[in-house]
């Protein structure tokens, strides 16, 4: 093995068409459009979930589900907002999920 310099006298091999700034902008636009479509679906599903959560009778259960899943709060923050201990929040969450599941099944049939 030995170290050698690059031989620049040989013919240059090209790898295809060079990418112009217009191509880069077009690619960026395509990626942006795809991201916007994904966000649109995400927002529609979030509003659908909020609609079903709002059909739960218990205010505390609605608050737990909305703050945890729609607003993305931590369990500690949810417990603080509802005014319960962390253990009580988990029990309340279990009941809320059961109620949500019943509503989800009714809505899925329609």
Question: Can you characterise this structure?
Answer:
It is a single chain. This protein is mainly alpha-helical and 110 residues long. It has a single domain, classed as Winged helix-like DNA-binding domain superfamily/Winged helix DNA-binding domain (Arc Repressor Mutant, subunit A, Orthogonal Bundle), CATH 1.10.10. It is built from four helices and no strands. It has helices spanning 21-53, 59-70, 75-82, 86-109. Helix 1 (21-53) runs antiparallel to helix 2, helix 2 (59-70) runs antiparallel to helix 3 (75-82) and helix 3 (75-82) packs across helix 4. The longest helix has 33 residues, at 21-53. The model has no long low-confidence stretch (mean pLDDT 89).
What key attributes describe this structure?
110 residues; elongated; Arc Repressor Mutant, subunit A; 4 helices
């Amino acid at each position: 093995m030995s170290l050698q310099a690059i031989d620049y006298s040989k013919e240059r091999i090209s790898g295809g068409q060079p990418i112009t700034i217009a191509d880069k902008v077009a690619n960026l636009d395509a990626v942006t459009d795809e991201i916007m479509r994904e966000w649109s679906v995400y927002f529609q599903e979030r509003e659908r979930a909020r609609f079903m959560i709002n059909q739960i009778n218990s205010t505390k259960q609605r608050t737990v589900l909305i703050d945890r899943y729609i607003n993305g709060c931590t369990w500690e923050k949810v417990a603080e907002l509802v005014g319960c201990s962390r253990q009580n929040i988990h029990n309340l969450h279990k009941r809320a999920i059961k109620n949500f599941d019943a509503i989800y099944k009714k809505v899925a049939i329609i």
